[in-house]
Design goal:
CATH class of the largest domain: Alpha Beta
Shape: globular
Structural class: alpha+beta
Number of helices: 12
Strand order of the largest sheet: 5-6-8-7
Bound molecules: flavin mononucleotide
Largest sheet: 4 strands, antiparallel
Distance between the termini: 42 Å
Number of strands: 8
Order of helices and strands: EHEEHEHHEHHHHEHEHHEH
Length: about 300
């Protein structure tokens, strides 16, 4: 992405300096002559633009005003502590992986809004090096799902060969043996049920899917894609859509480049998340938050850190 330094409208800027401490790259400086920019290192994060009370700063190419197509959004800033935590936490707690979708299409405008929400996520050095590939209807999801299933059929057959999986393990490549132990039976059953009854245990009958990938050169590609994915899941829940991350599809894409090409990805592009999207069916009516296990949390004081 072509990046440019912020431009300062000298007629508007009153050299208040508020933009200086929020610039992560030290691109803006107060000098005896007033505010000055040096272009090197600008991340195009837009903090300077967002903090300026006089709209004196701009970053060419940054899409500030674009609104959502299907839902209202006031592009104001919500100050720290000035939102309703109950709503935010309830949204996070209420999102569930959806495995029962209605046979009802999701419009392109809704999908574009979900992607827009996804791109509100942070990204390493603000690289925004993510890509979104949309499977817009059931036929596309099914076609891609069938190619994933064909991959897993080959994998199951391969992992059934004791000498191959054990040979690989002896060579320090235990992945095939691990797959055989942990997943082969479930995958075989899934393939069987799809072939015999047309049951879709991969995409759960979803009428659309979105793959989130990264362009070559992104600083933290996987993290960026997964953070964008979480935004998308929450936004989807808020607008009434169900979602499910499909790790099996990501795994297939990781091992079979022809699947990556089937998604139209360019050389060096990688897919980190595949998300089934659709309107939730009547089975998806939950009554309460199911809870989570307590995670290990440790606190390390300065003396602990320095002593070890
Ligand atoms: C990286 C990742 C991959 C996942 N892959 C699948 C998948 O292939 N199929 C599926 O049905 N669910 C998948 N899930 C959904 C999890 O099973 C689900 O998040 C978990 O059971 C907790 O349920 P919840 O999402 O409703 O809170 C995946 C979740 C994550 C985070």
């Amino acid at each position: 992405m072509e990046r440019m330094a912020p431009t300062v409208d000298r007629g508007r800027c009153n050299d208040c300096g508020r933009c200086v401490p929020v610039c992560p790259a030290g691109v803006l400086r107060m000098t005896p002559e007033g505010l000055r920019t040096v272009s090197a290192g600008c991340l195009a994060c837009g903090h300077c633009v967002a903090v300026c009370p006089r709209e004196a700063l701009a970053i060419p190419g940054l899409d500030f005003a674009r609104e959502f197509e299907t839902v209202p959004m006031n592009p104001r800033w919500v100050p720290h502590g000035k939102t309703d935590p109950d709503t935010v936490l309830a949204l996070m707690a209420s999102r569930r992986s959806c495995r029962n979708f209605l046979d009802r299409p999701v419009s392109g405008a809704v999908i574009r809004d979900l992607i827009r929400a996804a791109t509100l996520a942070p990204s390493g050095t603000n690289s925004q090096g993510w890509t979104f590939t949309v499977l817009p209807d059931r036929a596309a999801v099914l076609a891609f799902g069938q190619r994933c299933l064909a991959f897993f059929e080959r994998l199951v057959r391969l992992s059934d060969q004791v000498w191959i999986r054990e040979g690989l393990r002896l060579l320090g490549r235990p992945e095939l043996a691990d797959f055989h132990r942990d997943y082969a039976a479930t995958v075989r059953e899934g393939i069987d049920r799809f072939r015999r009854q047309g049951e879709d245990l991969l995409f759960w009958g979803a009428p659309a899917a979105i793959a989130i990938g990264s362009l070559p050169g992104a600083t933290t590609p996987r993290e960026d894609a997964l953070l964008a994915a979480q935004n998308l899941l929450l936004a989807a829940h808020a607008v009434g859509l169900g979602t499910c991350l499909i790790g099996f599809a990501v795994e297939a894409l990781r091992h079979d480049r022809s699947l990556v090409r089937a998604l139209g990805c360019r050389d060096g592009e990688r897919i980190h998340a595949v998300i089934a999207v659709g309107w939730p069916g009547p089975a998806e009516r939950y009554r309460r938050f199911p809870g989570r296990f307590r995670p290990p949390i440790r606190t390390r004081r300065a003396r602990d850190v320095t002593a070890s």
